[in-house]
Amino acid sequence: MLALGKLAPQRRGRPCSCEAALEDGRAAEKFARMVAALGGPDDFVDHAGRYLARAAVVKPCTAERRATSRA
User: Fold this and answer.
1) Can you tell me the distance from the alpha carbon of 71 to that of 4, in angstroms, rounded to the nearest whole number?
2) Distance between CA atoms of 64 and 49, rounded to whole angstroms?
């Protein structure tokens, strides 16, 4: 999405910076700051279950085939 919005370069054959941010925790940290800035709890990311009700119906959802990279 960042590459499509021209906010990050497209890199063919290499993980994009957004994947790295997900893997190293930077994305979660940024999300936690966004939640807190909007008045939400500071520990939402670490303890989301305290704040969100469990769904009435929970079903597994698995992919029929492996995803392929479009990068």
Assistant:
1) 11
2) 29
DSSP 48: G
42: Cβ contacts below 8 Å, ≥ 6 apart: 32, 36
What one-letter code names the amino acid at 66? R
Predicted structure pTM score: 0.58
Per-residue pLDDT of the chain in tens (71 residues, 90 and over written 9) = 667 777 777 766 666 677 788 889 999 999 999 999 999 999 999 999 999 999 999 999 998 888 776 55
At 21, is the secondary structure helix, strand, or coil?
helix
| CA angle 9–15–21, rounded 5-degree value | 85
